[in-house]
Write a structure and sequence with these properties.
2 domains; formyl-coa transferase, domain 3; 3-stranded antiparallel beta sheet; Rossmann fold
């Protein structure tokens, strides 16, 4: 079965995480993504982790996770020959994606305006720490950025943690910009299909994190409040938190009164539902300390499995899973969310997260491992009618 994006061809110059995650989303659903690397390869090829029997260190887990389903070629864009090859390839693709710092492509003579002159239908997508001057000048445009910098400046650190700002475990300062850029690419490709007009688009990592933290914007604008780290509680709902069980932790959320009443029934405390101090979300928020103490006093006396029986399907609830528990969860198996990779020369055991976007007619997902460095160079150059020597 064909992916929904079959027929879209992408030249992928991205590196590390934000950009490769963006183009991975496209590749997972059928786009022909051609990853172009410099001779030294993407940094994540050397980061690992590696399977124990991968003695040649060819298959980094980091690289495999976000570069699956792509073809890989090597071009040295600092040389005239490979710049000419790249320009010729641009004429036959729909999208170019890159996440270099501002001005890198321009200094190579491969900026948007140059590429657009070769292919007016081209969608040129860039992910940068603070955006590109073409869409809005930033005083930080020249600053380098990584995930944690975007989390800090976009407001995420300011509302996360038990009191001291804390970053998220996953690299959301990279992943969220990647998701938004993939959406932007598809919107621009749709426009190009209708009008024949390509365009430049960019996503700033800072902007993406601010958009993710949209709640702090309206909180401040509507009330003047400057939100602070919230820990595991919610500033506008109660109970809505992470609480201790006898053998771990669970998440529980009852912002609506029927959910609260169901929780009271599960706790065998029906009188709490009628108590005016706790009868509405507003009153529970006013007495949040008391409410959470009651809930925690009950949950800590039961295991996660016991709580699943008492709460599952009745109250919005879930165990705080570690990855071993995720691997064993029947939901994950039923949804096909763990994909195995065949890595030549290595015993089975390589697994990456599969696509969470499920179609009935055009299913996507992990089909092939990520390429070794330059694996498809000759094949791809020949497809474009170029010398593959």
């Amino acid at each position: 079965m064909r992916g929904a994006l079959e027929g879209i061809r992408v030249l992928d110059l991205t590196q590390v995480l934000a950009g490769p995650f963006c183009t991975m989303l496209l590749a997972d659903h059928g786009a022909d993504v051609i990853k172009i690397e410099a001779p030294q390869g993407d940094l994540t090829r050397s980061i690992g982790p590696f399977l124990a029997d991968d003695t040649a260190r060819r298959y980094s887990g980091y690289y495999q996770s976000v570069n699956r389903n792509k073809r890989g070629i090597v071009l040295d864009l600092k040389t005239g020959r490979d710049r000419a090859r790249f320009l010729a390839m641009v004429e036959g693709v729909d999208v170019v994606a890159e996440n270099f710092r501002v001005g890198v492509m321009d200094r190579l003579g491969l900026g948007y305006e140059t590429l657009c002159a070769r292919n007016p239908r081209l969608v040129y997508a860039a992910i940068r720490g603070f955006g590109d001057p073409r869409t809005g000048a930033s005083p930080y445009a020249e600053w380098p950025a990584f995930d944690i910098v975007a989390q800090a400046m976009g407001g995420f650190l300011g509302i996360t943690g038990p009191g001291v700002p804390m970053k998220a475990g996953p690299g959301i300062g990279d992943l969220v910009p990647g998701m938004l850029c993939a959406f932007g690419i598809l919107a621009a490709v749709r426009h190009a299909e209708r009008t024949g007009e390509g365009q430049f688009l960019d996503v700033a990592m800072y902007d993406a994190m601010l958009a993710l933290c949209e709640r702090i914007v309206f909180q401040h604008a509507f009330t003047g409040v400057v939100p602070t780290p919230e820990g595991n509680d919610h500033p506008m709902a109660c109970p809505y938190s992470v609480v201790e069980a006898a053998d771990g932790w669970i998440a529980i959320a009852c912002p609506q009164d029927p959910e609260w009443r169901a929780l009271c029934a599960a706790m065998e405390r029906p009188e709490l539902a009628a108590d005016p101090r706790y009868a509405s979300n507003a009153s529970r928020l006013a007495h949040a300390g008391e409410v959470m103490a009651i809930v925690r006093d009950w949950t800590v006396r039961h295991t996660k499995a016991e709580l699943a029986v008492r709460l599952g399907g009745r109250v919005p609830y879930g165990p705080a899973n570690d990855v071993a528990e995720i691997f064993a969860d029947p939901h994950v198996a039923a949804r096909g969310m763990l994909a195995s990779l065949e890595l030549p020369g290595c015993a089975p055991g390589a697994v990456v997260a599969n696509t969470p976007i499920h179609f009935t007619a055009t299913p996507g997902g992990v089909r092939t491992r990520a390429p070794t460095l330059g694996e498809h160079t000759a094949e791809v150059l020949r497809e474009f009618g170029l010398d593959a020597d």
